[in-house]
Amino acid sequence: MNIILFGPQGSGKGTQAEAIAKEFKLYHFSMGDELRKEIKNKTEIGKKVEAIMAKGELVPTEITSQIALNISKSKESKNGMVFDGYPRSADQWVFMSKNFKIDSAIELTLSDKEAIDRIASRRICPKCGKNYNLIWLKPKVAGLCDVDQEKLIQRNDDKPKEIKERLKIYYSQTEPLKKEYKNLGILHVICGNKPIKDVYSDILEALKQ
Prior knowledge:
The protein has helices at 13-24, 31-40, 44-54, 61-72, 90-99, 112-120, 160-174, 178-184, 196-208, and strands spanning 2-6, 27-30, 81-84, 104-109, 122-124, 131-133, 187-191.
């Protein structure tokens, strides 16, 4: 089973993708996480990606496509994958539609104001990469990672100005893909402005359909 989970920044894609992956024993595929792994492991792809990102440029589709394809052939993804915020553009969807059978596409909706409030509250551990949110996923000790007690930081692209720019990109490039999913009869629209457990319950109900 392959599932696409998409929505504006802050809609809870990562949290819900993790829960879905655990429930159905699927591979949680987050392109951002996969790119960071490639860089950390100093792979050939990682070296290319690091140089591209250092210039502030977008990672080309041929690279993201190769990463997705490599993961799909691994034993970890034998039951399928949950694509967290991927594909993000029309050319990425062209690749996806040719190489993957997508069973469901779930859109998590959220207002811009709520998205900005949520993302601005994000914090991350610079050592292990664990994510937190000062609204609903707080660390046990304020400001410190639960895993290694490292001081949490706020990513530069999680600040209001940067968030607004990312939302513009989402609305211009990613949201239009819902027409493709609707035409295939696999689109489910879920309100993301609810408690995490309620959103997850709605997603499970949609997947049953």
